[in-house]
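Regression test attached.
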Amino acid sequence: MIRAAVAFATLTLLFGCASDPSPAPVAEAPRESSTEAAAPLPAASAHRSWLDPSPPIETGPIVDPERLHISTLANGLRVMVLEDHRLPQAGLGLALRRGAANEAPAQAGLAVFLADLMERGAGERDALALAEAVEGLGASYGVSAGWDSIQVDVGGLSRDLDAMFAVLVDLIRRPRLEAFEAAKVKSETLAGLERAKDQPPTLAAWSFARVVYGEHRFGLPMSGTPETVALLDADQARAFHESLFVPGNAILYAAGDVDAADFVRRVEVAFADWAAAPVPEPGAAPPTPTPAARRIVVVDRPDLGQAQIVIGHEGVGRADPERVPAGLMNSTLGGGGFSSRLMTVIREREGLAYGVHSGFRLRRGAGPFVVSTATRVSETRRAIDLLLAELEGIRENPPTGAELAHAQTYSAGRFALGLETSGAMLGSLVDLDIHGLPLDGLDTYRARVAAVTTATAAEQARKRIHPGRAAIVVVGPAETLAPALEGLGPVEIVQP
Amino acid sequence: MSASARLLSTILVLFLSAPAARAELEDPALGTHVETLDNGLTILALREPTTPVVSFQVWVKAGSRDESRYTGIAHLFEHMMFKGSTNLGPEEHAHYVEERGGRINAFTSKDVTVYFEDVTPDALPLIIDLEAERFGNLVVTEEMLASEREVVLEERRMRTEDRPQGRAFEALLATTFLAHPYRWPVIGWRSDIEQVTVEACQEFFDAYYAPNNLVVAVAGNFELEPTLERIRASFGAMAPASSIPRNPTLEPEQKGERRSVVHFDARAPILAAAWPAPPTGHPDGPALDVASQILSGGRSSRLYRRLIYDEQVALSASSAWWELKDLGILYAFSTVRPGVSVDRVEALFFEEIARMGSEPATPAEIEKAQRRLEASLVRGLSTVHALASRLGRDWVNLGRIRPLDEILAEIQAVTAADVQRVMAEYMKPEKRTVVHVISPPPPSMPEPEATPEPPPEPAAATEGSES
């Protein structure tokens, strides 16, 4: 049954952070094994099948070519369809190959602002009429912005394909972008930015971005700051829309109970007259390496019982040829799963945190490498010292053969699980296209994972992990935290 | 060729070049194999060979409502299930699942605790063995309990103590339920987490982790007979419990509105409210679901339009029927815009709720809600994890698997009069509990000057206790 999505996270409790789709690692640290003799019940399985070696990684193709259609219209518009007739539903959309990274820092938040405004009326329909039209079918729609893309989506039951497609075309080509709606969006965005300060992870992420990227666009939140958002208006949104929504910058897609040939015909009819225009160059590349030296920032939230910790520096680009070995190295370090080194030390051995994670934020221009966790305020220094020691540790003791093998089978398996639905698989194909990567990337991924060696993983650790100059951001009571951080580097205290 | 033959061939050509036939909605759960072993363990097995994934789930019919002495023990115990057994060291279970590329986790709720793995088909036999190992041979030690206790306390800080929404929910349930075990948080009160003992964990395990209190649900790509055989062989030796203890406390009827105010450093105040409602499986359920859709389903819903779009006083507004086994609640939740009075949002929110009970919804609203619920049901068939969850949930709650046709028919049968009736019956002002999470007023406020900025709203009239 559908449930309005509210704080449901508080109703059921997961054992661990369940949200990470990226690779993970091994536990080889010897553990104090249980000393208490258990009343031995009959062994559940005489054959301890878990000790059998993992089968070799399946490296064959994963996308069924019979179901996939890819073509390009004369005006440059890419069309991708993944047919799946098991269920009577379909997801349609358009993805751009540019996003918030294309904004000038002074216009920070423009892509998100445009996306929100696009949802508020298109073609003959104003905001409420649009919502009524789509939701009246039981369908849904949305426009979302990321650093490297803006996406327009409409999804629902395939019996409503005609209506959904018409709405999609309106959203893309005829957004109303009205001034009074722009004022509402702006007001809501500003309120949302203020509300976001109630979330310690958000405060930490904002401060971390500022420290690592400074004046570069990545230094400001994707949704902008109160100062930059205050200057946005419908005219800027329209100009941004006109420059980015051009056929050569876009992929029109459908996944699900859709006939590819029929869909392509629809696209040709609706988009053949979409005039080709130059595609804007990508935004400026971020600085690297950064930060040049250790910087520590405490964001003062005197009321918190738990300190939110973020450590990191520059990372890896989405299309960097070394991203796979870098990702596997990170999998051993803290890339997800319960058996990474960071989870083993911070959660299992020391009981310092519910979750701890490290990862490369893959963007066209390299996003950051980020380690994050949260621990009781009194243990903040110990947690940071342990995190820094593990970052140093992966350089000095890079992933062992067993750790790498674990990371490889984990990554390959999780990759396959992540493609269970056609929507997810097509989304991954679209993402490859957004970043100009070969479109057989899903078929070759597991072979590329299997090809990584301990030598290349070790090289990545030394090349990519730099605890000595990493930025450290902590959100919590500054009065307690600042003295505890002494000796790690210069500490700056800021207000949320 | 006769004219009619020509016509026929034209039709055939048209047909052949027309789009592939649309998919029909079929309920895969109709083919579920159901079996109960001699020791009382129920197996629900649903083959879906078109996917590359299989989801294996063990549903334990025990949640926080079954706790005595220590609140939070059901959840803390769930954590201990990862900390080793006779033949496995701490965390090894998760390690072996992840080594095969699997997804592993568990969750605890008011009524159930669920352990799950989503894996590729080759790993299923291993998963069955691993689950049977920890369900059959768990080992709880002081040392492991000590470190996991700290992990859970961090989880409590992260979800509840340092978050306005978490504070609101904790206070809401503690105030809505005076007596029933649903009143305490699933994660437990801090003092209890701090004091849970190994003996108490062992008692909880012995009482509730018996095969006759378990349901195994498996859905996805697997061979039926070998899988059943392996489950029978590995879980079949577990000894059943003679009886499963349940807390006897029922909730007394609510006589009048209750309020609770929580002071917390929140820039965006939180409004939360709840009304007693029927338990899961109740015939009024479909009407309550339709009503929730009309109130808060999407951007054309009443609450979105009124609170977020037109009046611009809130950043989110939602309402839903929370189905629980013993008794449910209807709840309402809103994040108030920074600087806006939570009282103002409350007044508008309750005005919309009252309108639902005083006048019928429009036919268009009813139909929209029905279509949204239908689309959501179809979406729920997209992954084998969701399928296995549906099997487990239905079996635990109802003792059978509800066919999709039946659910859809019930939704389609809901009328505007039904919606009006259930809203008037359940969401009465005198039956509600209201929680505000607001920043504490400054210690001493200077007297307002001639034309002051509006001061922060004082705490709303408060009876009831802070949680």
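Expected vs. actual: identical. Chain A touches chain B through 111 residues (CB under 8 Å).
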